[in-house]
UniProtKB/TrEMBL annotation:
The protein's name in its UniProt record: ER-bound oxygenase mpaB/mpaB'/Rubber oxygenase catalytic domain-containing protein
Keyword list, A-Z: Membrane, Transmembrane, Transmembrane helix
Stretch forming the signal peptide: none
InterPro entries for this protein: MPAB/Lcp_cat_dom
Organism per entry: Podospora australis
Region (Disordered) residue spans: 90-125
A single GO molecular function term of this UniProt record: oxidoreductase activity
Start and end residues of each ER-bound oxygenase mpaB/mpaB'/Rubber oxygenase catalytic domain: 137-350
PANTHER family assigned to the protein according to its UniProt record, in alphabetical order: BLR2777 PROTEIN (PTHR36151), ER-BOUND OXYGENASE MPAB_MPAB'_RUBBER OXYGENASE CATALYTIC DOMAIN-CONTAINING PROTEIN (PTHR36151:SF3)
Amino acid sequence: MLWLKCGMGLARGVPAARHLVTKDILSPSPSAPSNRTKNIQYAGSLAYHRRMGCPPQPTPPRLSDISSSENQTLLLSKQLPEAPKAMEFENVPGNASFPSTQNPPGPTEKEHLLPQHHPFTTGKTPEDLLVESCADLVTWIGGPYAILLQFAAPGIALGSCQHSRFQTDPISRFRRTAAFILAVVHGTEAQKAAICGAIRKQHSFIKGPNYTANDPLLQKWTAATLYAGAVLMRDTFSISGRELSRIEKEGLCAQFGRFATALDMPAEMWPASLDEFEAYFDEQIRTLEITEASQKAADILLRGMNLPWFLLWGLVVMRVLMAVWLPERLRVAYGLSSPDRWFVWMGYTAIVWLIWTANWVMPERLKILVGSWMKKEMARAAEDIRIQGRWMM
């Protein structure tokens, strides 16, 4: 605090003394205060410095010590601090004066290339963004959106209809998917190996005439839909109201490739840039064949899941959200209402507002507790697989 006190003393004491001395030397007048008055005033500033703990200031010069203009100049240059330079003004029409306008130094090249929200300027790496995305509870709301995109791939739709239990036991199916995602993001190497190994083993039995669950192309499409859902949820329900920047999306896209490579997709198959990913994603949406199996699987998800009675309202909410979020081609194929209809848009607006508000008012401690519980579930699933050799959830 000593330097702050000294600064306050200099700001209040020294300029006042300098002003008195300079004024009397350069423009003496009969009304100027006497030497006794100036000495009293300067003594007051010295007392202020001593009270604030600052070092003593030099005594002001006396008028009797100055006999000529040369001595005045010498005395001022040696004993008085240099006065600040006067602001330069330039005259403009209209008898008005403004400070001279000089172009301020422009931003450096780094400031041009890295905006303020860039992950590396805010201290967040792409991996930090992935951890935040998985820790944000609203990200999991994008699960049905990602699944309906996946059903557009005939192989995933056939495998889900013939081998998955998501109709009869959707909660258990969600827990397994959550365990896989958390193992890839937060799990140890042993936990990740156990859970991913169990999934690969189970996928080896899911095959048909034209598909196999371990197909790298299907793994790539699954990871792509997870990324699309995470970005959509982050931009829709962000408490700050700020969408992810292009650079943040680029880093997050690279990280989501881990969900495909964890199931043995070659790393070089994942898009190398966000532009490449968007071209791939748009091509898939435009060309994937929506088969009868796709429509059947989507109908089960949207209308036929065996949920507890107190969660049945979630099916209505899901249909409203998917009617707005899904691409037009998939929305029509899955039999959802047009988002242009007034009741769909009003329902969507109300649902989004309620979810955003709940996410905003939810205590951070509660979010942390839910995340910790999900991680413990993942660790328990990995331990069960290690001991029993299969899923126990």
